[in-house]
Amino acid sequence: MSQNNDQIHVTLIEDERDVREGLTVLINGSPGFRCVGAFRTMEDALQSIGDRLPDVVLTDIGLPGMSGIDGTRVLKERYPNLPVVALTVYDDAEDVFAALCAGASGYLLKNTTPVRLLESLKEVASGGAPMSPTVAHRVIKLFREFRPPETATHDLTGQETELLKLIVDGHTYKTAAVKLDITVRTVSFHLHNVYQKLQVHSKSEAVAKALREHLV
Hints:
By secondary structure, this protein is an alpha/beta fold.
């Protein structure tokens, strides 16, 4: 979280002016939040975001030029610890899957209520992975239908598997630490090992792989 008065700093990427301005007003008008950048295109955001790294990026998927999905991939390559949340009208499985594989930490529909949107920003800034209910249902169904590769084995320890299950269930680092009776730093250490063993680079990718390969 940002060091400035514990505010959550948010960067918006949205090509529709009314939506962009409405979200800016919502964020700046809510205690504990501040919009530190609002861009029409991903290209503009990528050019400027490094000067003022936010706590969360909220991006549309259907942007002019570089898509939000491709942009998410670039953002995660440049700033691996920067949470990116997709905010879109698209809820089809292909877009959801592509966004998560690109490294998105959450996926919200544009009909999400303002209160839930702000809650989701808090959640993702704390290590969570918020999704609209219909999207979450679609994701679970999609991954459960995939057959795991017969040779899938990642040599996860018992504690690593237990931690992965907690992450899949939506726990943050803090709540997982409480459940396992270990420190947050130890959770971070174990998750780093899990990511290496699964050959993924983000929590969302780990969740996707765990569900796809029935690891938990």
